[in-house]
Amino acid sequence: MKKILIVDDQEVTREMVAFMLESKYETVCAESAAQAMEVYRREKPNMILSDFRMPGMTGYDLQIELQNEFHKKIPFMFMTADKSEDVESQSFKNGAMDFIHKPIQPEILLRRIANILSTVGEIEALKKTSTTDALTGLFNKGSSEEELKEICKTSRGSLLMIDLDSFKLVNDIHGHAMGDKILIAFADILRAAMRSSDLIGRMGGDEFVSFCHGVDDPAAIASKTKFINEKITAAAKKLMGEDMNIPLGASIGCVLVPQSGTDFSELYKKADKALYIVKQNGKHGYNIYSEDALEEQVETVVTLDQVEMILGERNKESGGYVVPFETFRVMYRLIKRNATTFGKRSHLVLMLLKHMDDDKNFSLRIAGEKFIDCLQKTLKRGDVVSHNGNNQFLLLLTDIDNDDDAEKIIGRIVESWNELPESKHFCFTYEQAVLNS
């Protein structure tokens, strides 16, 4: 039921109007503008029906004071016994939505109040559509920027840029419908982490923004970051299963206002710089912008489980591990160290794919793609494969007991390759070396 605040210095008028409205509306009363201020703060009515002329603060003064305090247009309807056209004209000029003369006719009063509340509802619906993100219900990019421009000019607090880390993997692995569920859950987590007075918006995709009023303590930012990271992991597991291995989390770039300025555009750039540092230092953490030594200020809040998800292999398929050449080089050096230190036996194998005849109509590139697929499927999970150029392939065969084992593996590769049509036009040669020799 909608709530209406009735303001009049005459008790009989307050009681009469409340009686007229009681069948359709909840009512609260105040005998003065000053008292009405207190009642409004406590009750948050949907509209105010106020006498225009009252001792001390007038109805018009009340309207201005409330709108200045709450920074929004509050639906007002004035009532007065004054028959002067100037009074009616002035009330509309001052922003009233309607005006009614005393003595008040119940049916006229009810009809006009219904019209006001209907109009307010339509305006709020249109405003919500134009200012909110349809998926999450947060402020959209345009309205976030508009609000933040004003907030940053006059408020003290923290401007946060918030990225949902590894979100693309959700869409790639589980589909966009699951991606939408994760975004909705993340928006709810942000609401829980912030206060109702804080602004939260979605800038697009997996990027969010928030302004936390009065918050400039690093410990508070750290606490929010920890809360958000813990909750998104829990929400993701609930939605995608306990075996979910996508390293979802939040990276947060923070800039303090007004310490670092009051212009939103410049503050946003600074928050972005702080966010970039977090991204470069492992994600799932926060950084507060400073002109000096940004990197030294980065704090991460990941758990060991989250670190394992960040480092972990997304591809759980059987077979060899296919990696780029630069990664292969790092793994080669590590395996070579282990072989030298612990006596582990591993083989490095170089394979070259070649045309078997002079007919060049068959694509070496396509054959190479087939060959790397053949290698991946034939080798075990502990082996590593890299495709370096169209026809060069590098293998690291790990945990080899003797040279015969390596030859058996290469024999299986030959058998698998010969089953493919491309083997009629391409063959491969190889040479190998033992890493601990």
Protein described:
The protein folds into 3 domains: 128 residues, Response regulator (Rossmann fold), CATH 3.40.50.2300; 171 residues, Alpha-Beta Plaits; 114 residues, Reverse transcriptase/Diguanylate cyclase domain (Alpha-Beta Plaits, 2-Layer Sandwich), CATH 3.30.70.270. Helices cover 47% and strands 21% of the residues. It is built from 14 helices and 16 strands. A 6-stranded mixed beta sheet has the order 7-8-6-9-10-11, with helices on both faces. The chain has a 5-stranded parallel beta sheet with strand order 2-1-3-4-5, sandwiched between helices. It has a 5-stranded mixed beta sheet with strand order 12-14-15-13-16, sandwiched between helices. The mean pLDDT is 86.
Write the layout of secondary structure elements.
Elements: E1 3-7, H1 11-21, E2 26-30, H2 33-43, E3 47-51, H3 59-70, E4 76-80, H4 85-93, E5 98-101, H5 106-131, H6 141-154, E6 157-165, H7 167-174, H8 176-193, E7 199-204, E8 207-213, H9 218-240, E9 249-257, H10 264-280, E10 285-288, E11 299-300, H11 304-311, E12 321-322, H12 325-342, E13 347-355, H13 364-378, E14 384-387, E15 392-397, H14 403-418, E16 426-434
Parallel strand pairs: 1-2, 1-3, 3-4, 4-5, 9-10, 12-14
Antiparallel strand pairs: 6-8, 6-9, 7-8, 10-11, 13-15, 13-16, 14-15
Helix pairs in contact: 2-3, 7-8, 8-9, 13-14
